[in-house]
What does this fold into?
Amino acid sequence: MRKSFAQVLREGNVDIRQEYRKLYSILHQEAFDHRTKSLYEFFGENFAHFYFRGTCLSIEEFDQKYGFKFEAEPNDFNIDYLVSFCEYLQNMLFGLQAANFSGGYGGFASMEVNIPFILEQIRLVIEAIGYTSASDDGKTIFVEKSPVAIAVSESDLVPAELSYRVLEYDHYALKGDLEKKKHIILQLAQILEAKSKELQKISSSLKDDLFFLFNNLNLRHNNVDPSNKGKYKRIVSELDKGQLEHWYDETYQMCLLAFMELEQAERKKAFDEFKKQIVEG
It folds into this structure.
C-alpha cells in the first residue's frame, strides 16, 4: 500500500504547521532580517512592476481576485495550505526580483530583503515534505515528488511544452478539475497513439488496457450520452465525479508506465550491444 503523505510526514518528524508559521512570519514581520517594513509591504510597493499582475492595480486587489487569504493561525490547515502559501511566497519573490530591473523600488528592496535566503528556506520546506518544483511561463508550482512523473517529464518522447503538464497533473489545485485532467491525458494519449505498435510489442496487455480506457472512459469519445449509439457506456455514465476522477488518475498512472516501458525498450537495445561487447571481450 502506498503511504499517505500524513504518514510520511509523521515518520519524518516534519511539523508542517510550524514550518508554515516561520514562513508566514518572514512575510509579515517587519523586524525579520532587520527590515524597516514587512516583506508584504515591499511586494505592495513594487506590485505595479510585477510581470504577472494582469490588470490588478494593487497586491490587495490581486489577492482578492485569486482568493489568496492566508491567516497566521488557520483553522482549516493541511499540507495543501502550506504548499499554496509556498507557491504564493515564491512567485511574489520572483516578481520582486523582476521589479529590480523594471524601474520599481526593487533596487532598494533588494538591499533589505534577503531574497536568496527566503527562496532557500522555501526550498528546504518543500524538500522536507516530499514535493518538487515545476515552472511554466514564469509561474512556479510545487507538486508531489514522483520519480516516475519526473522521469517521464524529462523523456525525449514528451515534447517540452507537455513536460510541465505531466508534473502539473498531480498538483493539488487540479483535484476535482476533471476537464483539465482529461486534457492532459488526451495529450499523453496522442503521443502514445503514435507509439502503439512499439508498445504492443513490449506489453500487449498494457497497451490494450490503456487504449480501452482512452476509448471508453469519456476521454476520446462521448461515452455518457445514451443517444451516442455505439459509444455509450452505461457504467461510465453512472460514475459519480469522484469515481470518474479515480479512473482518470489510474489512466494517468498507466500512461506514465507506458512511457517508462518505451524508454526501457530503447535502453535495452543499448544495453544488449554493451553486454555483447563485454562478453566478446
Notes: Residues 246 and 252 are 10 Å apart (CA to CA). The chain has a mean pLDDT of 89. Strands lie at 131-136, 139-144.
